[in-house]
Recover the amino acids of this structure.
């Protein structure tokens, strides 16, 4: 039972990190994003790769 709870907590933490990362990337100033080679349209894919890739 504690293993299931730990898995749920880990998944919730990853989802929160994903949401926060998407928000930050989407709201980054255009000049900073351009310097980093990022585009607001790619925020979800970039966040997914960062959070869920090992």
């Amino acid at each position: 039972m504690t293993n299931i709870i730990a898995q749920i907590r880990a998944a919730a933490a990853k989802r929160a990190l994903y949401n926060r990362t998407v928000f930050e990337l989407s709201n980054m100033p255009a000049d900073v994003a351009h310097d980093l080679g990022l585009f607001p349209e790619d925020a979800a894919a970039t966040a997914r790769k960062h959070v869920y890739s090992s």
The two ends are 25 Å apart (CA to CA). The longest helix spans residues 2-26.
